[in-house]
Specification:
This protein is an alpha/beta fold and 275 residues long. The chain has two domains: 67 residues, Chemotaxis Receptor Methyltransferase Cher, domain 1, CATH 1.10.155; 189 residues, Rossmann fold (3-Layer(aba) Sandwich). The protein is 40% helix and 20% strand. The strands form two sheets. It has a seven-stranded mixed β-sheet. Strands 3-5-4 form a three-stranded antiparallel β-sheet. Helix 2 packs across helix 4, helix 3 crosses helix 4 and helix 5 crosses helix 7. The protein is globular, with a radius of gyration of 20 Å.
């Protein structure tokens, strides 16, 4: 099996991954992409990266293989209560002005690039701990990810200890049930959450509209410039006028000419869709 892709092989595969998933592997990341693809070559008994490219393009099982590939090339680093200050901003700043309208319909949130579900479930816990349910708040939280394997894990709600690294002993006891060395999220903290497989880089992706807020954190840093702009435009379509977009700390829309206005909530910047 070829250890490192030749120039032509690498460009064919990098362009295909970029076009299908929006992810960019520039020249400095060639070995990273190769390391993620080698297990697929071994599993499929292919001898070169060129053979793998042809498999992805022409094999009858190419659609299934793209789903396997998504699990390997995406960065699935996540954990419960990551950048938890953004959940506080949602509860303290975004939701209260919406409460009069939310008496007649649920709050709608999207966890975009949800991986194995930690972010979506952290949102549930933050909403439950806010006490806003006592004022009649209901919610639906959609989680979507390109990886079918990660979506299956999200639906199962069973996690390794590393996913709970931001949880102290009290939080672990409140929210999880130990199970054979792992941790099962308690059913009451799965309230209102659904998960679906969806490719955010695909304009035909099956994602609904009418969200009050979208969380897409630490995903866009891996996107090509064109895919970045296209996804931001989709987020604008999926959000209600005045809806909020929460990005990761290393991601920014400033000076990108999007349909969003940077706003400061406390000491933090989030993005609000123009009316």
């Amino acid at each position: 099996m070829t250890a490192v892709p030749e120039d032509v092989e690498w460009k064919l595969l990098a362009d295909l991954v970029r076009d299908r998933m929006g992810l960019q592997f520039d020249g400095g990341r060639r070995e990273l992409l190769a390391s993620k693809l080698r297990p697929r070559l071994r599993d499929l008994h292919l001898r070169s990266f060129t053979e793998y490219y042809h498999y992805l393009r022409f094999h009858p099982s190419s659609a299934s293989e793209f789903r396997n590939l998504a699990t390997h090339v995406t960065n699935n680093e996540t954990y419960f209560f990551r950048e938890a200050h953004q959940f506080d901003l949602l509860v303290r700043n975004v939701i209260p002005p919406l409460m009069p309208s939310l008496r007649a319909r649920p709050l709608r949130l999207l966890s975009a690039g949800c991986s194995s579900g930690e972010e979506a479930y952290s949102l549930v816990i933050a909403l439950q701990n806010s006490g806003l349910e006592l004022g009649g708040l209901r919610w639906t939280i959609d989680g979507c990810d390109v990886s079918a394997d990660r979506i299956a894990r999200a639906r199962a709600g069973v996690y390794d200890e590393i996913a709970l690294r931001a949880c102290d002993a009290g939080a672990r006891a409140r929210y999880f049930t130990p199970r054979d060395g792992r941790f099962q999220l308690k059913d009451r903290h799965r309230k209102g959450v659904t998960f679906q497989e969806a490719n955010l880089a695909d304009s035909a992706g099956a994602v609904r509209e009418g969200y009050h807020a979208i969380f897409c954190r630490n995903l866009l840093i891996y996107f090509s410039p064109d895919a970045f702009d296209q996804l931001i435009a989709r987020f604008a379509r999926w959000l209600e006028p005045g809806g909020y977009l929460f990005l990761g700390h290393s991601e920014s829309l400033i000076d990108r000419g999007s349909a969003f206005l940077p706003v400061c909530l406390g000491q933090h910047v989030v993005y609000r869709k123009l009316a």
